[in-house]
Amino acid sequence: MIVQWSNEGQLFLVTIPEFVDRVVMPCTHGKSREEAIRNGEEVIEMYLEAWQVEGESIPEPSTLQIA
Questions:
Q1: pLDDT 10s digits, 5-52
Q2: CB contact at 8 A, 36 and 30
Q3: Alpha-carbon Rg of the chain, whole angstroms?
Q4: DSSP notation for 37-60
Q5: Strands of 2-6's sheet, edge to edge?
Q6: Is residue 65 part of a domain?
Q7: Domain of 29?
Q8: Within 13 A of 37's CA, how many CA atoms are on the CB side?
């Protein structure tokens, strides 16, 4: 999960790189960093459960590499 501050929206935006092909980005937000992280965790759980029920593949975790 990547959490970034948005000056425009005055919110913390959450994106999930592994979901980029399946979920509209950013996928959630929060007024505080803690709220954004909590919301991001809920989104991850929601999608993983739905994909499992639907028999869809679950994206493999990736490692963020910073140059």
A1: 999 999 999 999 888 888 777 689 999 999 999 999 999 999 999 999
A2: yes
A3: 13
A4: HHHHHHHHHHHHHHHHHTTPPPPP
A5: 2-6, 11-15, 28-30
A6: no
A7: 2-53
A8: 3
